[in-house]
Structures are given as C-alpha cells and as structure tokens.
Specification:
The chain has 391 residues and is an alpha+beta fold. The chain contains 15 helices and 17 strands. The chain has four domains: 123 residues, no CATH class; 63 residues, no CATH class; 64 residues; 91 residues, no CATH class. It is elongated, with a radius of gyration of 31 Å. Pfam families: Dcc1.
Length: 391
C-alpha cells in the first residue's frame, strides 16, 4: 500500500467534513498485513480477577464433552462461554497506541503506518455460572462401593474415577469438584473416588452407634482409637474412620482424636433407610418408628429431612414419602417442571429445599419463584404453581 502524506490525510478529513482541530494530530494509516486472516484468533473477554489469574501464571481450562455447552474454569470458579457478535469489525494492530499514550508523548510521529495482523467479528463472553456437579454423583453412583468382601467389586465393568478423570469430565473448577466430593461423602479407595453403597454405609454407621451405646460414650466425645480397635476386626479401619468423618465433627483433645456425632445427619440417614422401602408412609407411624430407630439420646425432627422427604398434608391421614433433591434435574426449567409434575401447588416452605441449590450468586428463592412459577392464595396461604401447562 502506498504511504499516505499529510496533505492526503487533510484532504480526506475535509471530504468527511471533520474539523482537524477537534482530533489528535497523530494519524494511524492502516493496511492489511500478508497474514491478516480472521480465523486464527479468538478474543476472550475477562473480568479483572481472571486477568490477574493469567498474569500470575495460573491457567484457565475449558471443560466439557462434545455434547455439552463449553464452560471455562479457574481454580475455584466456573463460567459459561458464549459467542457474542459485534456490529463493528475488531482489528488487531500490534503496537497500537491509545489516545492516552499519544497524548502523553507529544513528540509522537504525525503519521503512524500500522499493519493489521488479524480481525474478528465476535468474541467469547464469560458469565459466572453454577458448577455443573450433578454428573459427579451420577458417575460415582454407577458403581457404589459395597465393602471389601463384595464380589461385585471384583467383576464390575464400570469405570472408576481418579481426581484427574473427574477434572476432565465434570464442568466445574477443581475447588468446586473437591468440595462437592466432600458434600456427597465420597472417599478415595485405592486411588479412585467412590461413594459407599447406602446399605453398606448404614451397616458401618450401626456398628459405630452400637459401639457408642455399649461403651456409654457421650455422643459429643467418641474416641477414634477405641473405635478402630473395637471395630477393626469387622470392617477396614479406613472405612470406620470415613464413617466417623461423614457423620461426625473431628477434633483434638489432649493429643487424642475425638468425634462429635452429628445428630441431624444421623437422624436423616436413618429416616432415608426407613423411607426407601415404602412408597408412602403414614406420617404419625413413621415419626414413632423413626424416633425408636435412632441412637439413644438423639431427637428426631421433621426439619432434619429438608430436601430428602416431603410431607403430604392434604392426604388423610397425613403421609410422608422420599423425594431427594439430588434426583431432580439440574436445569432450572426442568427442575420446576419436575416439581410441578409431583405436586400442582407448593407453599414456599415446602418448595425451598428443592430449589435452593439453583440460586445463582446473590439470587434468592423468591426471585426464582417469580421467574418460574405463578402465585395465588389458597385458604389464606400463598401457594405457587406452574407458569406453563405441565404435560
């Protein structure tokens, strides 16, 4: 391309009816370089925090299998990646100076000849999103661990997953995945993450609670060493310790390890064991059996069952049935469709445990209900039903 002179630039400004006095004196003359293809470059818009991550030498990872919408993860956050089109063509000009830089350097050359190295009509836009963690439990539930004597474990054809495997399959950051593994009480067995089969977990828990009972230990001070000593002949020691970590809070006293047993979690697990064998249970009968089934000194309360079981107050007599939040869809609209399929009208108190986990950052349950449900009054109580017909 021929180099433009100042006279040509001034003539062009005049034709465009622009007043040179209102513009910076420096002029960029652009020409396309030989490699100015648009396809090789992708622009990614980063918030300052993510920019700082990259500048500090840490990496960002794009995760997802072929049939999944891509997400980008930092060490501890997950972002949806969407392509945003721009109406203006974006040009890549190496060494391009901004108006601020030109102003700061009055000696800067009058005419700057720049070559365009590439261009783009769109960029990737990031939006913070909830980590997609439902799949984590689903993968681990393919092959739950039934204990060291299980024949199934020797012959199982299901995949087993290491931390590395999960990082490549789950659309969430490393910290979110590791936190979720804790939440679902997964444990590492021979280097692989496993979830205990529920019946096996209950067997381990009853060993521990029976021992506490027979030794008359306070529920707030269960000694690890004595548990391992007494139960080590029945089950692997690491399984006994895992069940104490799952159902207790670990602490040290005079150099020894103790556990404070978590009443709510133990009561909840025993309720699940009772409920999973019946479609519906008469509520008052259930409450009686449940209280008799929990360890001495523990008190059962219905609010321990949030997100696990639902009471049907409209049936006579009242009933209770198992409804686990982790079995419901992860997508917002599908979750609401599923809930309104189970029950036509919900009170806010009943539906909250089943939608709480859908709330994005700083979003409330109320905002979700406004978007996906319609409210009305029923016998003086506010209830919510579907905004769309449920097939």
């Amino acid at each position: 391309a021929a180099m433009r002179s100042r006279a040509e630039v001034d003539a062009t400004l005049q034709t465009a009816k622009l007043n040179p006095a209102e513009l910076l004196p420096a002029v960029h003359c652009l020409s396309f370089g030989p490699q100015a293809g648009g396809g090789e470059c992708c622009l990614l818009q980063l918030e300052p925090g993510l920019c700082a991550e990259l500048e500090a030498g840490r990496s960002l990872v794009i995760r997802g299998e072929k049939d999944e919408h891509a997400v980008l993860c930092s060490k501890d956050k997950t972002y949806d990646v969407k392509i945003a089109d721009t109406s203006n063509m974006l040009l890549f000009v190496p060494g391009c100076k901004t108006p601020e830089e030109l102003n700061a350097d009055p000696a800067s050359c009058n005419i700057i000849h720049s070559q365009i190295a590439g261009f783009s009509k769109n960029y990737w836009e990031l939006r913070r999103c909830r980590p997609k963690l439902k799949k984590l439990r689903k993968l681990l539930m393919e092959d739950p661990y039934e204990g060291p004597d299980s024949q199934k474990d020797q012959t199982s054809t299901f995949s087993k997953y290491t931390t590395e495997d999960l990082l490549s399959l789950i659309q969430a950051s490393e910290e979110e995945i590791l936190h979720q593994l804790q939440v679902i009480d997964a444990c590492k067995i021979e280097g692989y993450w496993r979830i205990l089969d529920f019946d096996y977990e209950m067997k381990l828990l009853s060993h521990v609670t029976q021992l506490i009972d027979s030794e008359s230990w306070p529920l707030s001070k269960v000694p690890l060493c004595a548990c391992l000593e007494e139960l080590g002949s029945l089950e692997p020691r690491e399984m006994i310790e895992h069940i104490l970590l799952s159902y207790g809070r670990k602490y040290f006293d005079a150099g020894e390890v103790f556990f404070e047993m978590l009443e709510d979690k133990i009561c909840r697990a025993i309720a699940q064991m009772l409920l999973q064998n019946a479609v519906k249970f008469n509520l008052s009968e259930f409450e009686e059996v449940w209280q008799q089934s929990v360890p001495e000194g523990m008190t059962t309360r219905l609010d321990q069952l949030q997100g696990l079981a639902l009471v049907d107050k409209s049936s006579r007599p009242e009933t209770i049935f198992l409804l686990k939040v982790e079995d419901l869809p992860e997508d917002n609209q599908e979750r609401f469709n599923s809930l309104f399929g189970i029950r036509e009208k919900w009170t806010e108190v009943d539906i909250t445990p089943y939608i709480q986990d859908l709330c994005a950052e700083k979003q409330t349950v109320g905002a979700l209900l406004t978007k996906y449900a319609r409210s009305s009054m029923l016998n003086g109580v506010k209830v919510f039903n579907s905004r769309r017909p449920i097939s």
